[in-house]
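User:
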Amino acid sequence: MSIAAPTRSRVRLLTAAATVALAALSLTACNNGDGVRDEGASQHPSNSVPADGDNGKDANAGSTTGSGTGTGTSSGTGTGTSSGTTSAATTKPKPQPASTGKNNPTASTARVTCNGSTVKVAAQSVTRPINHLLLTVTNTGSKRCDLYGYPAVRFGEAQAVPPVIDDSQPQAVVSLSPGQSAYAGVALSGGDDGGGSNGRTENTLEVFFQGRNTNDGGPGAKAALPAKGVYIDDSLKVTYWQQSMSDALSW
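Assistant: Predicted structure:
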């Protein structure tokens, strides 16, 4: 009994000393100002700060907007969500209008020479002036055609082209739009004054055309004559191509 009493006193003393030591350690930690620091949490990506001048933006983006939220615990774990939109201004080239006939000068100004492939020819006997024939040429093509010079007429099997009446030459080349007509007069004979010779009746007529710089303007065209034919002699002459019927019959 005399031995047990001192042992219990020593245990109490040691216990009290341990309590005081723990209290001192706690007070020291609080006075440090840093608290308990979790070394693992400081290395989490959500706690990193971008370098100056970076600002977290992509240099290739036109504009950037975004928002984000995050939560974490002192044990070093954390979760986060973020959302954002990015838009960049782009400029699209304006479509070019398609090319049309109005923008293509050759589409509206293309011309060809009037000849048997682009026109039809009609021959008509007239009462005034007497012994005259009226030739009518009509553009049947899809393009404007030009009539150069005068018609080279061939009655029957004639080998020579009759001369032209020089005074009938117009001031400009006769030009025909599709569907338009032009005219020429043919003085068939000398009439009652007997000015011509070698008179005869012919039943066929073919008209040939002149080119811009040559007498050959392309294929000719046949023109039907009255059923009884026409009387001609060596005084046969023609006029230049005329824009009007009255000009063609005034010679």
